[in-house]
Amino acid sequence: MKLLRKFTKKTVPGEYGAEQESSTTSNRSNRADGANHKEQHLGLVLLYAAPPTLSETSGPSVDIVAIHGLGGDLRNTWTHKNGTLWLRDLLPQSIPGARIYTYGYPSKVFLNRSVAGIRDFSTHLLNALSLETRDNTKASGPRPIIYVCHSLGGVVFKQAMNLGSLKYGNEARA
């Protein structure tokens, strides 16, 4: 019984009918962003946007969306043990005009009380991307989106593209 208690966490209801860590268990000393506020674990999060001088002339040249895999989360999957979040800290040096996002969904399998499934996460991803890019597309025109997916994140992405194809038709394929 003590072993079971060791692996359980105090949780509070979160998005998608899933569970998020409570503030008592999410106080990490090695946060990827060094922020003092509670780290967001779910949804679409903007990690990097091109500086105004770059984006005023041509807008971001590409959007990059990283989707973590099974057992991961939206920051720690892409963070080195030295604290470098490569999506935010290294990738902009290679693609300075990029806008970089990461997407988080409940992916823990051990003691997960989530009633949501891949379709729910995919629908949320599709809706979040649609809202995020709608206004930006009007200002700077359409631009490509590069998806970086790890394991189950690829399944979430594929389901989102299937749902987008049904919802938006050929616009989702462009």
UniProtKB/TrEMBL annotation:
Chain positions covered by the region annotation Disordered: 14-35
UniProt biased composition (Polar residues): 20-29
InterPro entries per record: AB_hydrolase_fold, SERAC1
Gene Ontology CC terms, in alphabetical order: endoplasmic reticulum; membrane; mitochondrion
Compartment(s) of residence: Endoplasmic reticulum; Membrane; Mitochondrion
Superkingdom classification of source: Eukaryota
Chief localisation class: endoplasmic reticulum
Signal peptide interval: none
SUPFAM superfamilies according to UniProt: alpha/beta-Hydrolases
Keywords: Endoplasmic reticulum, Membrane, Mitochondrion
The keyword Membrane belongs to this UniProt entry's keyword annotation: yes
Classification via PANTHER family: PROTEIN SERAC1
Identification of the protein by name: DUF676 domain-containing protein
Organism: Mytilinidion resinicola
